[in-house]
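Field notebook, page 309. I keep forgetting to write these up properly, so this time I am using the form the group agreed on. The chain and the ligand, glyceraldehyde-3-phosphate, are recorded exactly as supplied. Prediction of the bound pose follows.
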Amino acid sequence: MPLVTSKDMFKKAYEGKYAIGAFNVNNMEIIQGIVEAAVEEKSPIILQVSAGARKYARPIYLKKLVEAAIEDTDIPIVLHLDHGESFEICKACIDDGFTSVMIDGSKYPFEQNVELTKKVVDYAHERGVVVEAELGRLAGIEDAVKVSEKDAILTDPDEAVEFVERTGVDSLAIAIGTSHGAYKFKGEPKLDFERLEKISNMLPGFPIVLHGASSVPREFVDLCNKYGGQIPNAQGVPEDMLRKAASMGVCKINIDTDLRLAMTASVRKYMVENPSEFDPRKYLGPAREAIKQMVIHKIRNVLGSSGKA
Ligand code: G3H
Ligand code: 13P
Ligand code: ZN
């Protein structure tokens, strides 16, 4: 099946109150692990590529690997640019066959974010490509900040409506307390569901995106640390919170950190248990399997997208 956009996927996910997993890809094993999981679960999937991934693997290699994946399967796959920081990178990916791009203007003032996003939307829509934007900045909700500062970081519902209307963007990443990486909360995990509900109600039918949605499972941190890792006090978003978000208009859930943890735990364990082995296939094979199992777990127990392909 050729690459698809997320339009139809999000419509069905919104109506069915589940979410599509957007997993970051950096190399062949990661792509294969994710796609094998999606095929087994008959789940639609988004493969997303960051600027860092493009730099690491080179755009042509990632493109050819994804082409191999779509030739090999018949599940709907979206190829998405994650956190595009300029019109130029979005244009390069659109011209290169991506079916979805994110323009991340969240660091700019509102008007500048609108202007940049609109420019990308105009270019993308003329070519049948969909666009995700971001409003608000991801940060720990537990940070010792004054309420006004907190509100300045989390997405403002009125601004979200104005932003969507003025840009014509297809989906919007909002900030309700998640953050990127393995250290998301200083104390008790907490998401601003009231804010999510408000935004969702004010934008009926519109797909909301949650970044920084890894759960950082304790067992994988422990496994890394058991085999020589030194990962301190990591804490992610509890899975029940993600399931709740998926039932409230969140149609895309971004996961990268959990794949990194699964892969690293597997490699660390193999290396310690097999100190004389040096064939990369011996440790990358199990690492690919660890990615696959992590994605199967997410699809079944967090996203609810099994059987929706
Ligand atoms: O949101 C960021 C993703 O986890 C990608 O990370 O920029 O290190 O590739 P990266
Ligand atoms: P995590 O770091 O929580 O996996 O978030 C990934 C992400 O948002 C990619 O855009
Ligand atoms: Zn992100």
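OBSERVATIONS:
- The two ends are 11 Å apart (CA to CA).
- The chain is about 50% helix and 15% strand.
FOLLOW-UP: compare against the apo run.
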